[in-house]
Amino acid sequence: MRQPELRAFGMALAVNQEVGGNLVTTAERLTRALVDRSRTRRRARTIVAYGRSASLLLAVIPVVAAVMLTRMVPGYASFLLGTPGGNMMIAISALLVVLGLRSIHRLAQLEAAGVPQVQS
Questions:
Q1: Tens of pLDDT, residues 59-89
Q2: Spatial contact of 79 and 86, defined as CB atoms under 8 Å apart
Q3: Domains of the chain: which residue ranges?
Q4: DSSP the chain
Q5: Rounded-to-integer distance, Cα 36 and Cα 40, Å
Q6: pLDDT value of position 43
Q7: Which segments of the chain have a pLDDT < 50?
Q8: Could you tell me which residues come within 8 angstroms of residue 118 by beta carbon, excluding any fewer than 6 positions away?
């Protein structure tokens, strides 16, 4: 059997036939383990999805803000692209975005590390 849950239940049945015991208790424990495993898998997926969406927002918002400012403020694009101060602002903002993305990635890994690993 490929699924570990079915293997565990099969082993529990085999042990129950050989030695006896309470099959209901074994089935309850297996059910509880399956529910906990499913809950853990959903939590890990939620953490990964949160990290991905936060990373996407952090990467997109500065670009959208720069485009909107360029449209609303005359000379903003020439300031950003044509002066050393504007170039410095672009470099600093790019560095901050990269650091933010890295921080979010680390936080998502820390949260996922707290969740027990499950096999699919």
A1: 888 889 888 988 999 988 898 889 999 999 9
A2: yes
A3: 4-113
A4: --SHHHHHHHHHHHHHHHH---HHHHHHHHHHHHHHHHHHHHHHHHHHHHHHHHHHHHHHHHHHHHHHHHHHSTTHHHHHHHSHHHHHHHHHHHHHHHHHHHHHHHHHHHHHHTSPP---
A5: 6
A6: 87
A7: 118-120
A8: 37, 40, 41, 44
